[in-house]
């Protein structure tokens, strides 16, 4: 009988007391254990930020890479060993700013990695500057003036980029988050989870209590159906509903699965088809050189 692997190692966690990151770490390591995975089945790749420390605390393979560059490293790992469950951990400052190009490109590529975005709306590691999900006009205690930038909508960006599994969790709803992470990891295409993660040190607006009063679960609505299957006549309607739902923010904030697209094959499958049929595919580049070599 296979022993259940404990993914939490004994390295001391140095996040601030009350940080939402603790809930994410618990949800992630519990999810991996419940999926009966071993340390050799998993690679955790991070960028820079408080979230970047996650691979240090997980008993699995991992790498703490450069700011905004976790996704290309993770894709390299995934394509080298498609059987690995490759998980990116990054903040909204990392993935939605300097790493935004990579985030969008991976949606289109759909290589089968799982992206966990620790969304606290501030750059926690560097004293709480406004990060890309902080709303326009909001002034946290770490800002001298209200935020002058408008915010990115991460769910909409992920869906429109092509991620085939898109969800939102809350770091203080650990069991709910764990279940979403399990679904995301087992999904063949690339998945993106926006995780609402209070930063009590720098963000005194979007606190644990602030979220607890507002979040509600999409799965409580039995009519909510985010799954698109092959030849689904409601595919466009479901896509539009997911986008519309992504804009709900304020007194009520939805958490749960927004969008699942089972129609799009992951990149590894497309690559295999390409390689298998290589001889039949005509070359894309024609020889256009002239006789004199110009
Ligand atoms: Fe968490 Fe904020 Fe402290 Fe970073 S600065 S560890 S996000 S509470």
The assigned structural class equals: alpha/beta
Element string (H = helix, E = strand): HEHEHEHHEEEHEHEHEEHEH
What is the average of the pLDDT values? 94
Domain count: the total is 1
CATH A-level architecture: 3-Layer(aba) Sandwich
Give a quick set of tags describing it.
two-stranded antiparallel sheet; 10 helices; binds iron/sulfur cluster; Rossmann fold; nine-stranded mixed β-sheet
Overall description:
The protein has 294 residues and is an alpha/beta fold. The chain has one domain (21-280): Thiamin diphosphate (ThDP)-binding fold, Pyr/PP domains (Rossmann fold). It is 32% helix and 18% strand. The chain has 10 helices and 11 strands. It has helices at 21-34, 54-57, 70-80, 92-98, 100-109, 154-161, 174-186, 208-212, 235-246, 267-276, and strands at residues 42-46, 61-64, 85-91, 114-119, 122-123, 129-130, 165-170, 191-196, 215-217, 227-228, 253-261. Strands 1, 2, 3, 4, 7, 8, 9, 10 and 11 form a 9-stranded mixed β-sheet that branches. Helix 5 (100-109) packs across helix 6 and helix 6 runs antiparallel to helix 9. The longest helix has 14 residues, at 21-34. The relative contact order is 0.13. The mean pLDDT is 94. Bound molecules: iron/sulfur cluster. Iron/sulfur cluster (SF4) binds at residues 15-16, 19, 21, 50, 120, 124, 199-202.
């Amino acid at each position: 009988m296979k022993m259940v692997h404990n993914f939490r190692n004994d390295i001391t966690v140095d996040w601030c007391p009350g940080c939402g990151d603790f809930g994410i770490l618990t949800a992630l390591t519990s999810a991996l254990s419940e999926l009966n995975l071993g340390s050799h089945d998993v690679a955790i790749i991070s960028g820079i930020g408080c979230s970047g420390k996650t691979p240090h605390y997980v008993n699995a393979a991992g790498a703490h890479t450069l700011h905004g560059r976790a996704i290309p490293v993770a894709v390299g790992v995934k394509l080298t060993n498609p059987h690995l469950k490759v998980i990116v951990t990054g903040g909204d400052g990392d993935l939605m700013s300097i790493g935004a190009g990579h985030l969008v490109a991976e949606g289109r590529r759909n290589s089968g990695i799982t992206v966990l975005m620790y969304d606290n709306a501030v750059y926690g590691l560097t004293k709480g500057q406004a990060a890309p999900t902080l709303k326009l006009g909001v002034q946290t205690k770490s800002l001298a003036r209200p935020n002058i930038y408008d915010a990115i909508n991460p769910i909409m960006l992920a869906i429109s980029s092509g991620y085939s599994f898109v969800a939102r969790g809350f770091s203080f709803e650990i069991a709910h988050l764990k279940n979403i992470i399990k679904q995301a990891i087992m999904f063949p295409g690339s998945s993106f989870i926006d995780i609402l993660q209070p930063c009590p040190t720098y963000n005194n607006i979007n606190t644990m209590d602030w979220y607890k009063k507002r979040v509600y679960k999409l799965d409580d609505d039995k009519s909510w159906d985010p799954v698109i299957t092959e030849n689904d006549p409601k595919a466009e309607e479901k896509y539009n509903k997911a986008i519309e739902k992504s804009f709900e923010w304020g007194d009520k904030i939805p958490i749960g699965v927004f969008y699942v697209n089972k129609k799009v094959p992951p990149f590894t499958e497309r690559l295999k088809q390409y390689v298998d049929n290589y001889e039949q595919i005509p070359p894309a580049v024609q020889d256009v050189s002239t006789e004199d070599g110009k």
